[in-house]
Every structure is written in C-alpha cells, then in structure tokens.
From TrEMBL:
This is Homoserine O-succinyltransferase. Belongs to the AB hydrolase superfamily. MetX family. Pathway: Amino-acid biosynthesis; L-methionine biosynthesis via de novo pathway; O-succinyl-L-homoserine from L-homoserine: step 1/1. It comes from Solimonas aquatica. The keyword Transferase applies.
Length: 382
C-alpha cells in the first residue's frame, strides 16, 4: 500500500470488478451485442433506499479508475481530487459508480477483447458506437446494480454528452444532470481535429487495417501523433506559453529534428505514455462517437425539443480558457434547456489551463460542485 492512501480524503485502495451484462444490446449501427462486460469501480455505500447513487461518465481517454489507488500504485484515479470523503463528490454521502465504457480498452468489451465468435480480438470488427449506445449500456449496468434512478449523473467533455443523453433517453432514471465543459454537438473544427488524429492512426504501417494484434505490433507512431494533436487542443495558449514559452532544452539550436524545445519534449512524453496505456481501435471508435453526437438531429434540429421530456435538474459548467468546448457551447445547452422549460443552473469558472480544467482542483469549481451536490445529498437523506 502506498503512503498516499492514508489521506483521510482518499477512498484508499480500490479494486475494479468486471460485470457481465446478459441482456441483448441493440446498437444504433444496426448490430446487436448479445452479451457484453463492463469494468466498474464503486466508492461509498448504497443507502437502504438505493437513492444515493451517482454515475461518473468518463471522457475520451478516461476509464473506470476515477478515484483511489490500485494496489501498489502511486498514481490515483483520474478524478481523485473530486471524489472521496469530504470531497465535492462525497463518498460518505454517495455511492459512486465509475465505469469503462463499452468499446473501451481497460477491461470492458471492446476492440482489444476476444470476439467469442472467432476466438480472436475483435479489432476492426467491433461495431462503431454512439453516445446513445453507451447510455443504453449504462442503463443495463444500473439494472445489474439494482439502481432504478441515479441521484445524479456527472461527466465532463464527452462525459457531459453522455449526461445529456441520459436525460433525453431515460428521463425517469436521473434526478440531477451535471454537464461540465461539454457541447451539444461538435463543431466542424473539432471534427476536423478528430479526423486528422484518426488518419494518423489509419496511415501507420503497423495498423494493419486494425488487426495489429495478430501481428504482435502497435501502431505507436500514429497513436502518438493522435494524442499529441489532441493534447494541444486540451490546453490554452496562455497555459502552454506559461509552462514552456519557446524555451530550448539546450543552450543553442542544434539544427536538426531532434527534441530541442521544452514543449516538444512534453508532447512526445504525453504521446508515448498514451501509447503505453491506450488502444488504437478504441481511439478511433471513441472519436467517431464524439463526431456522431447530436441529440437535436432526431428532433428536427431543435435541441430544446430534444430536452422537452427531460425531468432532471441541470448544472452546466464551463471554463473561461476552454477553447475546444468553449463557454459559448455550454450557453447553447443552457438556452435550449430554458426554452424547453427545464430547471438549469449555469456557472462560468475563471480558469487558465484550457479544456483540461474540468479535471483540476480549482477552488471555485470544487466549491460549486460541493454546494450543488450537498443539495442532492439532502434529497437522498430526506
């Protein structure tokens, strides 16, 4: 056990579990999954009324390990600063469920797991998914856990899109929706970023049409480039300037294409570490799900009509320095909710880092979440 887990605000050492979903899952692409598995972590305790459960929806590169430590590990879950005893998502008051989405690469059924029909990794044969498919899968998970209604569903970025889809598809099963640094659909610019990232992977000679597992290789060059591109968009110009400027790592230019600037070193490190933990086919699948998300499409392109049946109360949070999912996109969500007559609170958090600020322990941000979720907890305890 590492020393860090002695922190009284940590959920401590946690162990994931794989939950099998035997109910058939029809997918929007027209295919059917007869069975799938989801990797899940839970924190806190479900109360007797089963009314205090919160679902955490992860972003593109996230997974089920949101808080605490795995045995022997030094790095906590990706949202550890927000989930735990006394933290904004207080595990002394809530039962928190975090999963690796269907199609993920951290234990849930996806391209890197075995296709039972072939005995080989699914690879490119795994179906393309949508945010709606994920939400339907999560609803089946809730059934398996005996949770009829979430006290809240919470997510940032792509996770926020899942939150919105929950309120549209299962309005009776969600009391509060917390949508953070998200958008009602991707802009053309964001789709373009995703396409460049996908082409970097698809054109890697080691990709082998998505069957690289059979060749014992990884399309590391393409995946590294995809992550480097994505990471640039998650940071603000001011944050990159403050962190790196245009500083050389050495005293004078060496007039070659090796790493010379601090920012080059940083991006290559981020790219390589991503290759070590993420699957290329999953990256393709998840960026495509981002591109497809547009709940207004089924309602004559009227987002307010999409939210018409939603019964949850909403908290929508944006960050001032986020240019990938800018505050203007959050205000589109808020306007549609107001036009639909839904109850919504909106907050703009002053920030510096960019899109990644939704993962940071910004005091005003945490105070906002803590205050809102205190009200949610009182409802659960009533």
């Amino acid at each position: 056990m590492v020393q860090a887990v002695q922190d009284p605000t940590s959920v401590g050492v946690v162990a994931p579990r794989r939950i099998g979903i035997d109910a058939p899952l029809p997918l929007e692409c027209g295919r059917l999954l007869a069975h799938h598995e989801l990797m899940v972590e839970t924190y806190g305790r479900l109360n007797a009324a089963r009314s205090n459960a919160i679902l955490i929806c992860h972003a593109l590169s996230g997974d089920h390990h949101a808080a605490g430590f795995h045995e022997g590990a030094r790095k906590p879950g990706w949202w550890d600063n927000c989930i735990g005893p006394g933290k904004p998502i207080d595990t002394e008051r809530f039962f928190v469920v975090s999963l690796n989405n269907l199609g993920g690469c951290r234990g849930s059924t996806g391209p890197s797991t075995i296709n039972p029909d072939t005995g080989r990794p699914w690879g490119p044969d795994f179906p393309l998914l949508t945010v709606r498919d994920w939400v339907r899968s999560q609803a089946l998970l809730a059934d398996a856990l005996g949770i009829a209604r979430w006290a809240a569903v919470v997510g940032g970025s792509l996770g926020g899109m899942q939150v919105m889809q929950w309120t549209i598809d299962f309005p009776e099963r969600i009391a509060h929706a917390i949508v953070i640094a998200s958008a009602p659909r991707l802009s053309a610019q964001n789709i373009a970023f995703n396409e460049i990232a996908r082409q970097a992977i698809l054109s890697d000679p080691d990709f082998h049409g998505g069957r690289f597992y059979d060749h014992g290789v990884v399309p590391s060059r393409g995946l590294m480039l995809a992550r480097m591109l994505g990471h640039i968009t998650y940071l603000s110009d001011a944050a990159m300037r403050a962190k790196f400027g245009n500083e050389l790592k050495i005293a004078t230019p060496s007039f070659n294409f090796d790493v010379e600037f601090e920012v080059e070193s940083y991006l290559r490190y981020q790219g390589q570490s991503f290759v070590d933990r993420f699957d290329a086919n999953t990256y393709l699948l998840m960026t495509k799900a981002l591109d497809y998300f547009d709940p207004a499409r089924d309602f004559s392109n009227r987002l307010d009509h999409a939210f018409a049946k939603a019964s949850a109360r909403f908290l929508v949070v944006a960050f001032s320095s986020d240019w990938r999912f800018s505050p203007a996109r959050s205000r589109e969500i808020v306007k549609a909710l107001v036009d639909a007559g839904r109850e919504v609170s909106y907050a703009l958090i002053e920030s510096q880092l960019g899109h990644d600020d939704f993962l940071m322990p910004i005091t005003a941000y945490h105070d906002l979440l803590r205050g809102y979720l205190h009200r949610v907890a009182l409802e659960c305890e009533a």
